Recover the amino acids of this structure.
């Protein structure tokens, strides 16, 4: 009887203590989730801000400040042990650090977030005099730009962004300022100073437009030589740019498959590097309205929420700091953040850059990198943009935000990263 009574108390005590253990492990998991979310958010600031493509590194301090703010905000929105973490300086519950300094910038920056709560209350463990426990976690995320790995002589892993637009941009300076390429054969960036520049500009009066007059079919002259700022239309088919069928913006019911691929999100990842092969559209193009360029502008208007004036769509915010890092100001038609600074925008799109061993290129072509560009109607004109001296009335003003090159030889399992951005974001710390 004494043993039975004693076991009753022992089993009861063990059951009670297990509640404390479960509470402790649950809080530890919550702290890890908060750290993971904060690290990924901070790394995404680097990925979308253009800093990884900017060789001058003039804005690394601003990028770190912005990444710290965003990472702290995201981490502090997660509950740990029943309450959110305190982001106040000195509280010690959220700490953000980086793997680079002003003088030693890493082209693939890491963001580390440490979370801790030192006042987690106990319940039954108080019988031993312990009233609080401490839980903490750490996570490190990377903004991976394959161009940086190539520039350092490392073996680059290809990336495969989603929602890539079917605009195959030749590997030549799109601004027309030089005869340089965008990427070297190894994927490193030929002219990092292109970040923040765009076309039309002082050297290229054209906006982004379709080569072959939008129709690269044999009956229309076939694939013509490349020109700065012009793109070859990609093939809209299951193997290259499948037509998106879900999450399409309103106003697309009359769009043809090409326009849907511009206004919507192509669901297939587009891979760059050694294993990339994609086709230029050589089928006769039947426009929905007038030409492929006018169809492009109509689809782009829908994508960026452009109605009648440049203020409708988002813009690059140059008032807060000299970019990079880039921030974007929500336009009048922004459905979520009108008039507010945002890190992502529907006007921010990714286009593939193709290898040009010959000019014109042979079909199919190889994707060797990506440009992330901002479609930004000029403040002094309305869409469609018709630059002086240009034969085309349907061109879009474009600003380069990011450059990510794989080169011709990058191989292996591609990194999907964070969706549409060609600079992939991934957790690299152990779970």
């Amino acid at each position: 009887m004494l043993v039975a009574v004693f076991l009753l108390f022992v089993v009861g005590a063990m059951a009670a203590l297990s509640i404390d253990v479960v509470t402790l492990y649950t809080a530890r998991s919550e702290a890890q989730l908060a750290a993971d979310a904060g690290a990924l958010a901070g790394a995404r600031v680097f990925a979308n801000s253009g800093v990884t493509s900017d060789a001058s590194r003039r804005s690394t301090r601003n990028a770190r400040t912005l990444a710290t703010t965003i990472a702290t905000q995201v981490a502090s929105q997660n509950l740990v042990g029943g309450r959110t973490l305190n982001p106040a300086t000195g509280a010690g519950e959220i700490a953000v650090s980086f793997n680079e300094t002003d003088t030693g910038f890493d082209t693939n920056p890491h963001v580390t977030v440490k979370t801790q709560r030192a006042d987690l209350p106990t319940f039954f463990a108080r019988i031993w005099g312990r009233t609080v426990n401490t839980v903490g976690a750490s996570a490190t995320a990377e903004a991976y730009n394959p161009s940086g790995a190539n520039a350092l002589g490392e073996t680059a892993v290809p990336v495969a962004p989603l929602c890539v637009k079917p605009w195959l941009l030749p590997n030549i300076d799109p601004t027309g300022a030089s005869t340089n390429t965008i990427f070297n054969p190894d994927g490193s960036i030929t002219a990092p100073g292109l970040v923040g520049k765009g076309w039309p500009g002082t050297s290229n009066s054209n906006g982004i437009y379709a080569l072959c007059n939008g129709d690269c079919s044999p009956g229309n002259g076939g694939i013509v030589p490349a020109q700065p700022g012009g793109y070859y239309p990609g093939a809209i088919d299951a193997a290259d740019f499948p037509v998106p069928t879900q999450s399409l913006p309103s106003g697309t019911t009359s769009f043809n498959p090409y326009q849907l691929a511009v206004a919507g999100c192509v669901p297939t990842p587009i891979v760059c590097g050694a294993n990339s092969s994609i086709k230029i559209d050589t089928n006769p193009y039947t426009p929905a309205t007038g030409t492929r360029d006018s169809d492009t502008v109509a689809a782009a208007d829908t994508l960026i929420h452009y109605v009648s004036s440049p203020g409708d769509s988002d813009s690059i915010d140059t008032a807060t700091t000299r970019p990079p890092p880039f921030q974007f100001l929500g336009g009048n038609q922004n459905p979520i953040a009108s008039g507010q600074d945002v890190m992502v925008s529907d006007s921010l799109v990714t286009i593939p850059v193709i290898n040009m061993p010959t000019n014109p290129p042979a079909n199919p072509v190889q994707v060797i990198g990506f440009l992330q560009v901002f479609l930004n109607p000029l403040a002094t004109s309305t869409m469609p943009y018709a630059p002086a001296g240009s034969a085309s009335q349907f061109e879009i003003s474009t600003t380069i935000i990011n450059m990510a090159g794989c080169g011709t030889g990058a191989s292996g399992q591609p990194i999907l990263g964070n969706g549409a951005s060609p600079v992939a974001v991934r957790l690299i710390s152990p779970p």
Q: What stands out?
A: Residues 146-423 form one domain. The longest strand covers residues 132-144.
